[in-house]
Amino acid sequence: MIADVGVVIVAGGAGTRAGGGELKQFRWVAGKPMLLHSVQIFQARADVCMVIVVLPQSVVGDPPPWLFQCDTERLLLSVGGRQRSDSVRNGLEDLSADARIVVIHDAARPLVTEAVIDRVIDAARKGTGAAPGIPAADTLKRVDDNGRVIGTVDRSGLVHVQTPQAFPRDMIERAHADAYAAQVSATDDAALCERLGMPVVVVRGSARGIKITDEADFVRAEALSILRE
Q1: What is the pLDDT of residue 109?
Q2: pLDDT on residue 69
Q3: What pLDDT sits at residue 107?
Q4: What is the pLDDT of residue 17?
């Protein structure tokens, strides 16, 4: 198998909403530090040539020692930026020339599955951007600043989008370069491709793909970690 997949793991945030004083991405969940889950699952793949971990500037020079349990030959640390898009762009700049497919993943989603990774990479190899998603199941309301309901949203066709997201390298580099020039940011990388009319598909996500944001999410993640998909 050709190792032509480059992975950018975004772990550059302060994680203040999770509390506890320690950086969220370094806290333990489901038996190991949150960030380590993602690094290890990607480095276990034969098609991955490099994993870039984007860390806050305050720790990138002195990262936690457990990070070096990983394959250091395929591991590179990069410096996070002010916003998520800045961090991703820094990671993209550090990818080796071997990476023709780029996977971007949030460290705050530590329970990503092999099946989801396979699906986004397979789609990207066909020339499109790809993001995993779960169909919206709850009723959706639009509200004003005071919480007053101003409408009910038709949920048909709506999905909750997760990471990892995968792209042909030239596509995601162009999307980020254009967004930087236009001073545009986004909460996910697929949106930057969408604004240029580039094709993006949603593949089946996973209930394990939750994003850990606050303290309650750590409890949810512990429970979901036993779920096999």
Answers
A1: 97
A2: 86
A3: 97
A4: 46
Beta strands 165-168; 101-106: pairing state: antiparallel
Domain count of the chain?
1
Q: What are phi and psi of 13, to 5 degrees?
A: -85, 165
CATH of the domain at 189: 3.90.550.10
Task: State the alpha helices, DSSP H only, in the chain.
Answer: 34-43, 57-60, 84-93, 114-124, 169-181, 189-194, 215-224
Q: Could you tell me the CA-to-CA distances from 141 to 93, 148, 152, 154, 185 in Å, in that order?
A: 40, 10, 4, 9, 25
d(C-alpha 34, C-alpha 25), whole Å = 5
Looking at the DSSP bridge assignments, the partners of residue 124 are: none
Q: How far apart are the C-alpha atoms of 213 and 63, rounded to whole Å?
A: 22
**Pair 131, 162: CB distance under 8 Å:** yes
Q: Which of 107, 98, 47, 101 is nearest to 77 (CA)?
A: 107
- Give a yes or no: residue 150 inside a domain: no
Residue whose token pair is 């992975």: 7
Residue 147 lies inside a defined structural domain of this protein: no
* Selection from 192, 228, 225 nearest residue 30 by Cα: 225
Positions in the chain whose pLDDT score sits under 50 = 16-19
Measure the CA–CA gap between 17 and 71, rounded to whole angstroms. Answer: 31
Instruction: In whole angstroms, give the CA distance from residue 29 to residue 111.
Output: 10
CA–CA gap between residue 55 and residue 184 (Å, rounded): 22
- Say how far apart CA 223 and CA 219 lie, in whole Å: 7
